Amino acid sequence: MFKTRKGFTLIELLVVIGIIAILAGIVLVAVNPSRNFASSRNATREHDVSQILSAVVQYATDNDGTYPSGISATPVNVSTIATDLAPTYMPSVPTDPKGEVDYTVSQDTEGRITVSAPGAENNETISVTQ
After folding, report:
1. Gap between the Cα atoms of 73 and 111, Å rounded
2. Most CB contacts within 10 A, which of 37, 48, 92, 96?
3. CA–CA separation, 12 vs 6, rounded Å?
4. What is the dihedral of CA 106, 108, 111, 115, to 10 degrees?
């Protein structure tokens, strides 16, 4: 008479662990949480630059077309014009989600204002021009 043992062999266990590891790797690549977090921060940056541009335009409208002092052809940090914009035109001047770089504002030779987010991630360029 043969005795039958109940259980799994080592080979069967290794095959199942290998399959689970492959599936876990595929899921991690598909989800890519770091890219999703970067995209979320970029969405915040897009909102912030639009809000800053809107505040600058509102300031110019209230001041006979004069933009806040400090805006020039060379990009300047938004913090340099913060006293002109906050709290009248926006509750507070937004800062970059990572806090590493400040948003910049510049004016070209034709008088257009550009607000940019130099800290954008995923090789994106975030800027708005009015």
Report:
1. 9
2. 48
3. 13
4. -30
Among left, alpha and beta (phi > 0; psi -120 to 50; other), residue 53 is: alpha
DSSP for the chain reads -PPPPPS--HHHHHHHHHHHHHHHHHHHHHH-HHHHHHHHHHHHHHHHHHHHHHHHHHHHHHTTTPPPTT--SS-EEGGGGHHHHTTTTSSS----TTSSS--EEEE-TTS-EEEEETT--TT--EEEE-
Q: Map tokens 């800062």 to a residue.
A: 95
pLDDT in tens, 65-85: 999 988 989 999 998 999 999
Greatest distance between any 2 Cα atoms in the chain: 103
Q: How many whole angstroms separate alpha carbon 92 and alpha carbon 85?
A: 8
- Residue with tokens 């991690």, as numbered in its chain: 28
Which residues are bridge partners to 127 per DSSP? 116
